[in-house]
Structure formats: structure tokens, C-alpha cells
Amino acid sequence: MAAIPRFLAACMAMASPLVYAQLLQPQTNTWNSTFSLTEEQIASLNLSATAANNINIAARFEQSNWATGSVFTDPFYTHLPTNASWAPAGSVLKVEAFTSTSTYTISPALALSRIVYQSKTLNGTLVPVSAFILWPYRPRGGASVSPLVSWGHGTSGLTPECGPSHVRNLWQQFAGPYSLALAGYAVVATDYAGLGVPVYPDGSEIIHQYLASPASGNDMLYAAQAAQAAFPGELSPNFAVVGHSQGGGAAWGAARQQVEAQVPGYLGAIAVAPVTDAIGTGRESGALDYSFITIAKSLLSIFPSLSLSQMLTSTGINTVRLFDQVQACNSVINTAIIQLLAANATLSRHEFWDSIYISTWEDLVRVSEEETEGPLLVIHGVDDAVIPEALTFAAVRGTCDKFPRTQLQYIRAAGMTHTSTLYATQQIWFEWLDARFDEAARRVRRPNHKSCECKISTIGSQSPRPLDQYRHEPNYYLMFALDFYQVA
Ligand SMILES: *[C@@H]1O[C@H](CO)[C@@H](O)[C@H](O)[C@H]1NC(C)=O
Ligand SMILES: *[C@@H]1O[C@H](CO)[C@@H](O)[C@H](O)[C@H]1NC(C)=O
Ligand SMILES: *[C@@H]1O[C@H](CO)[C@@H](O)[C@H](O)[C@H]1NC(C)=O
Ligand SMILES: *[C@@H]1O[C@H](CO)[C@@H](O)[C@H](O)[C@H]1NC(C)=O
Ligand SMILES: *[C@@H]1O[C@H](CO)[C@@H](O)[C@H](O)[C@H]1NC(C)=O
User: What residue range is the signal peptide (predicted)?
Assistant: First the structure.
């Protein structure tokens, strides 16, 4: 064979060395999961052929996007050291300093590590949690160590397979982690307890306490502390937390938990499109069935005396069981619930909606109208259809009324929606983060006696084009290329 030009050989080495001997496949050859619901599963929900097909397709999409296979078979998630049963929150249990990115779709010029560390559930139980660390090529501003940001992802799903650290695009890609790392921050991103690492050291199931924001706030705080312990001297001794949606609630939760946790180096939190009122969101959008299906196990983990049959109809219970069996993440959950609601299924018990469990849960997981530590930047898109902006506005006003000394700044992004708000305000987070790290470097003490710092503003009126001309939610995903000819 004649010599292959060096640049082409380099492209081909990205895939298989035998690539020139193989028959090329169309791009979809990496979307190859063969998942199929069983007859029993289809019967348990009386799914139509269309509904079953759609759930299969969604599950194949999710499983084809695993970078390192199942978290139940990847020893990184299943083999924990013995100190996992007693090491205190914030300690590192396991370090994979170099994670091969050949099966991920991360941005060029970034590097990846994974850790397992100790966190605490809502009631303070120790729990092992996985996280990834995304490293910049050049620390921000040319600093000698990378300023550390703890990222809290938006909803990815409810079960261990939904841990972003084994998903090819790390979940939310350029909306959060890639952009932060490309801007020079090191990003530690918790999977949240119950996503990623599937079981406690004693072998029992870790239930993801979905939308229990103080619990995922713990996960964000202790991820930062553990990352610093895993890479001594390579990360800034200070850190900030940034999260979106579920992770926005978690970031606000971190600010609340920090009052007690006092994790060293905490600089403040950015909560973008935060969940502050999970039940309220369901009520506003007439989607309480959806809310209760997704938080059912979270509630069970908090109230051991509660049973699924108190919350859900038999169809609802079978839905939760199916989600466990299939390890449903967002795509499967949304596809299945759309199909069930279209078939007029009732999933939750309406008498449960006003039960004492709900009001108790709301008190336990509330992050607004609570004392928080440090500066808090809240951002929400005015046109958000997933979490109404009015709920965040109310949470901000309630917090400022009750705790007027909260160092809270609220920015409303006109014309922006749930995900576009993250992209629209990237420059604002970078400026805010730079100010926090700069204050820390200059040892500027923020006075904590200052009276109300609550500032509310709206951006977007100066946009170069009319607001209705801007793109809203993404209509693409990052597709893994197995062959050299597939890269665009
Ligand atoms: C599916 O694609 C992955 C690459 O994404 C590849 O490693 C694996 O061998 C493929 N499996 C099958 C059954 O083709
Ligand atoms: C199952 O769904 C079909 C329509 O697809 C309906 O005719 C039938 O009554 C349903 N069975 C049960 C047990 O709900
Ligand atoms: C736990 O054990 C692992 C493996 O021996 C070790 O790498 C890690 O540093 C230990 N962590 C703590 C907090 O003791
Ligand atoms: C605390 O919560 C965990 C789950 O996070 C549960 O297993 C445990 O029983 C709870 N303990 C108490 C005292 O409620
Ligand atoms: C669901 O209910 C609506 C409104 O009552 C009705 O129009 C529709 O035909 C029902 N769909 C099914 C699949 O039964």
C-alpha cells in the first residue's frame, strides 16, 4: 500500500487501525443498543405497540450513549474500598486520575478524571458518590492552579445509569461543564448520590433523593472538598458552586448546607433556573402525576413508613417499577409518561396531593426562605416553560423578606427559556466567578452585617436582534464518531 498522508493516518488512528480494510457504515453504526421491553413489562402497563416501540427507541438512545458501559458492571462504580463505610463526608474514596476519553464526546483540549467520594444524604447518612473532574488546558487567567467550580447538573434521570460521569457528553456538555472548563476552570461534577455508584458498602440500594436540594447540595460541597483531596496542590483551595435546574436547586441547597457544613474555601453559589418548589412546579403546569412519579422513591427514602400504594395508583406503581428495571433516564421517563398520559392513565392518588407527607417534605427540602452562606446569584429565563419564572421570583422575594442580609442577586433573562438561559448568561457567571476568586485572592472580606443586598434586574433589552429571533432549546446532541470520515 502506498504511504498514507500523515494527517489522514492521524485521523484514522482516532478510530480503528484497520479502518481501511473495513466496510464503512453510515453514521448510525454507533447507535447500536438492542434493548427491548419484555412481554411482561409491556403487559404490566398495558402499553400499545407504539408506546412500547417508543420506549425501546428512547432506551436504546440512552444505552448507546454510555461511554464506559453499565455502572453495574464498570468496577469503578461497584468496587469500593473498605473505608467507604466510615470515611467522613468530603473524603476521597477512589481516584481515577486519567480517564480515557476515547469513548466520550468531550471537547478537544480538555482532560477527564473520575473520583468516588463520601457525601451525606438528607438525614446525614454517609453515602458514596461518583463524580467527574474536567480539566482545562490553561487555568483561567494563566494562574498556576485551576480555580475550582463544583457543577450541579440538571435532571438526567432517577437511577444509577443516569450518572453523567459515564455518559458520553457528561450530560449538558457545552451548556455547563465544557464551557466552564474551556474558560479555564476545573470542573468537579457530582453524579448526585444514587446516580453513578449504585449501592452502599453493605450492598443496599442507594436511592437518588430527587429534588431534595439540601441532599444534592451536600453532594456539590463535598465533591469540591474531595477533588481538592484527590489532587493536592493542583486545584484552587477555594471553590464556587454552579448548577442548573435540579442542580440550580442543589447549588442553592449548597449555600444553605454550608451554614452548618462549613466546607473550607466556599466562595458562593450560582443557581440557574433552580428548582425551589417541586410540587408547585407540578401544580402550575397541571403535571402533578409527573411530579409524583419522579419523586416517589425520593419520598420513600425520607419517610420509611410511607408506601408506594399510598402515593400512586397501580399503574403508577408499575411505572416506577418499570423505571427501575429499565434504569430509566430522562428520555425513557419522558417518553413513557407521555405515552401513559396520552392513554389517559392516572398515575398518582389525588388524595395524597395534600397529605402531611407533602408539606413535611416541602419543609425538609426547602432552600429559599432559609439562611444561606455567602453570595448567591440566582438566574432564571423569563420564558422558562419547565420551571415558571414566577416561582423563582417568589422564592427570591421570600428569601429577601425573611433574611434581608442575604447577599442575593437575581437576574431575569428576558426571552430566554430553560436551557437557553444557561448559554445566554455564561459571561455573567464567568464575571461573577472571577470576582469571587479575585476577592479571595486579595483576601477581601465581604461584610456580613450589610443590610439587604437583594438586587433584582432583567437583562436582554439590549440584545442585538429582537428576542424572538434567538434559538431556544437545543435540537441536537453530540454524536460519537467511530470512523474517521464522520467528524464534522
Ligand atoms: C456498538 O458501538 C460501540 C461503539 O459505540 C462499539 O464499541 C460496539 O462494539 C458496538 N456494538 C455492536 C454490537 O456493534
Ligand atoms: C389496554 O389498552 C387497550 C387499548 O390499547 C384497552 O382497550 C384495554 O381496555 C386496556 N386494558 C386494561 C386492562 O386497561
Ligand atoms: C480510602 O481508601 C482508598 C484505597 O485504599 C485510599 O486511596 C483513600 O485515600 C482512602 N480514603 C480515606 C479518606 O481514608
Ligand atoms: C436516613 O436516611 C437513610 C437513607 O438516606 C435511611 O436508610 C435511614 O434509615 C434514615 N435514618 C433515619 C434515622 O431516619
Ligand atoms: C383520553 O381522554 C380524552 C378526553 O376525555 C379523550 O378525548 C381521548 O379519546 C382519551 N384517549 C384515550 C386513548 O382513551
Answer: 1-21
User: CA 193 → CA 122, 242, 324, 429, distances in Å?
Assistant: 10, 17, 16, 26
pLDDT tens-digit map of 402-435:
999 899 999 999 999 999 999 999 999 999 999 9
* Distance (Å) from CA 194 to ligand 4 centroid: 14
Cβ proximity of 411 and 393 under 8 Å:
no
104 within ligand 1 shell (Cβ under 6 A): no
| Ligand 2 atom index nearest CA of 48 | 5
CB 195 within 8 A of CB 162: yes
> What gap in Å lies between CA 172 and CA 179, rounded to an integer?
10
CA 343 to chain centre: 30
Ligand 3 pocket test: pick from 76, 80, 92 the residue with the most ligand atoms within 8 Å of its Cβ: 92
Per the CB < 8 A criterion, the answer to whether 170 and 190 are in contact is no
Instruction: Give distance in angstroms: CA of 206 to centre of ligand 3.
Output: 21
Q: Please state the φ and ψ torsions of residue 348, each to the nearest 5 degrees.
A: -115, 160
Q: Quick check: 71 and 171 in contact, CB under 8 A?
A: no
Residues 6+ apart with CB under 8 A from 467: 414, 415, 460
The reported pLDDT for the residue numbered 10 is: 67
Rg for the chain (alpha carbons), in Å?
23
Ranges in the chain, pLDDT < 70? 1, 10-22, 445-452
Q: How many residues does the chain have?
A: 488
pTM value? 0.95
pLDDT tens digits along 51-71: 999 999 999 999 999 999 999
Answer yes or no: are the C-beta atoms of 413 and 381 closer than 8 Å: yes
Picking from 159, 484, 77, 144, the residue whose alpha carbon sits closest to that of residue 333 is 159
